[in-house]
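are you around this afternoon, could really use another pair of eyes. what follows is a protein written twice so to speak, once as letters and once as structure tokens for the fold. i want to understand how the tokens follow from the sequence so walk me through it. anything you notice is useful, everything is just below.
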Amino acid sequence: MRKIIFFLLSIGTLSIYAQNSLSGKIVDKNDTPLLGVEIYSEQLHKGTISDTEGNYSLQNIPNGKVIINYTYLGFRSVTKEFVFNNKNLTFNPLLEEAVFKIDEIIISTPFNKLQSENVMKVERLSARALHKTGATTLSEGITSIAGVSQISTGASIGKPVIRGLSGNRVLVYTQGIRLENQQFGGEHGLGINDAGIEGIEVIKGPASLLYGSDALGGVLYIQPEKFASENSTKININQRYFSNTLGSNTSLGIKSSLKNFQFLARGTYAMHSDYKTPLYKVTNTRFKEKDLKLGVGFHEKNFSSEVRYNFNNSKLGLTEGIGEQTNETHLETPYQDIDNHIISLHNHLFFNTSKLDIDLGYTINSRKEFEEHEEHDETENEEEHEEHEGGEAALNMKLKTFSYAAKYHFPKMGKFELLLGTQGLHQTNTNFGEELLIPNAIINDFGVFTTANFELNNNIRLQGGIRFDNRLIKTEKHEIQHEDEVHVFNPIDKSFNSFTASFGLKTRFFDAISSRFNVANGFRAPNLAELTSNGVHHGTNRFEEGNNNLINERNLQFDISFDYKSEHFEVFANGFYNKLNDYIYLSPTGEIEDEAPVYTYLQENAKLYGGEFGFHLHPHPLDWLHLESSFETVVGKQNNGDYLPLIPANILKNTLRTEFSSNKWLQNGYTSLSMHSFFEQKNISSFETETPAYNLVNIGFGGNILINKYTFTTSITVNNLLDKEYISHLSRLKSDGILNAGRNIVLGINFTI
């Protein structure tokens, strides 16, 4: 990998220094210069900001077509495509005020359009909006997006659910490459810290055309933190405190940009004790996390490259019930110790009117689980506690993944755009512990696809494509002695193939109503756990048996969405119908093995349907007031009439939000009061229980405090204000009758110099 990076960077250093630049002046409709407008190119991973006179200058731009985005809080974004050919260009944009969300570039889709231009509707949550939720983890934070939920195990482990689909059916991308960290496990979290990210994009529905297997249910695309503006250096400190877990999250970052080099580094440390319900603390739900993110960007004539590295260590307690009530942070057994190394290399080669993107990634995931319980004397010091977090791991797996992707953007022919791409990975799983959940294995993926975008006129856009994928899985035979029995992992050598396609249409009715119609099919090859499991998953408290006769899951989903926007009112309606063939699910056999109930993997055709509906009212002349409401519903059923497991309950979210600003001491201030009403969930699978309805009340307050020339971004959030006793239908602790977290006060401060 180091040789590859060196080679690609060497290509750039041998090229001639580019002289292209873009400059201009940015004003509003009153011809007033705008200070602090962000001018940024996602293709180049670089940008700048406007000065007090509204002037800006972006240097060292390669030849070819480059998309530049102009964004400013409270104003509509402007996006323009420029063609550079060894000359300087000038552009003077006029920004208009916007009541609702900023229209942003979507990078998880192939043509990087503005959301308003995108054929596929994609939801986006910025890092600032994420922190306003007061969420303890990234997985919890994204549940503020309509149609997104999480399956949780305590406060530290959460897995995203998109319209009723979860696990390997939701693909996660980070640093531009797919995340591979044994994510199929029910007791595994995302393994991504929310510090050092710019935002999150969510594709709700099949995205196999763009990403291959495992994108059957949708994609979570995590955008890394942007580099600093050109010729600037910034130091950022972020601190958050969580009252419920007596937890803290401290992050320190520095980034600097020159004309053709950029650098950033961010270190984060988080520590939490057991989470507290209104009645008790849930023993050994404590966790610790260390996170390091590094990035280097390089730009030369016709060439742009970016290297990112992320190291994350998470120590996660696995609760066995309600025990000793303490505020300790040392880990009791059982617990997991997980290391994740992610390195990615992104290269963009510009050929005047076309472009080639080459992405390479390498991920090492080390997952250890410690089970033996040792008694502790109350007088033990913290050093001894740390020693307790060591010893031999009963479960010890290492997953190594090399991934690659190449996309060629053909020269644009009028209003027709075409892209040809390939993606793949080579993966090895190796066991080192005395216990096995899955065998040693080798996996190879390969896919090739093409997709096109056509703008028929200003009101009609079309997009479609086709793809072919192949996955090869080969495992070793293992015989594991456990008490008086031998667990046998029989070897497999299987190949899974699939064609996928999608088609979408975006149009406008009466100028104010945007509509999108999409139909897409996706697929998911069975994963190692589903094919080969033969042991107890302690995080889920069950003995799982694999089924090597499983075949591909396939689905066909129809999506329709309508958006109406006026100056003070916004309405949206999204509906979907998802037909699943050979849906893979766990079913109890009624047997007991190793003191745990036995579950096996079966397949059955199924369907999911539902949608998200809501409005946003911004009444005039009360410009400081916002009323937002949304309703989410999903139903999942097998063809035999049984309901699918882990389907979120219907939810109604109502939020009253105010905005205010004082140039003297507080800018971009806000207050919010919300109530989330979770309906009773009676549509349950054969091994689930019904969940009663409940309401959660949350409040928030914050803004930018100005002290001299420095700005402190502050926030205060209180989640579950009334300290409600409840159990989420998607909590893995529900079967033990363990409550979810009670009141949690989150204090945050963010400071940049």
Q: What stands out?
A: Residues 231-752 form a domain with the Maltoporin; Chain A fold (CATH 2.40.170.20). Residues 631 and 652 are 5 Å apart (CA to CA).
